[in-house]
Hints:
The protein is mainly beta. About 0% of the residues lie in helices and about 50% in strands.
Amino acid sequence: VQLQAFGGGLVQAGGSLRLSCAASGRAFTNYAMGWFRQAPGKEREFVTAIGWSFSDIYYADSVKGRFTISRDNAKNTVYLQMDGLKPEDTAVYYCAANTLGSPRSTLSSYDYWGQGTQVTVSS
């Protein structure tokens, strides 16, 4: 499985970005997909995840109400809509795949990782 994340960029505080993560492989429908982020000097942290069942979605408290995860299984793609961005959202954002299908918040639960895309929010 190969994952490619894109859509990052520079945005002012209060603005929006949509990240995309395209996955290879036929089994995408069965995977749980997650987004994580890593700011300079900090550990990689959980942002959100969506299970193979579209209703199985979790968010970190820091992004709840501002970020929305979704997936399009026909396109093998998962999205992260980020609204109301804050400077503290600045980080490299990574998508990841959990082949067991259960959305988890722990890094070790994910089997495949994308290369990351930089999101910078200016104040």
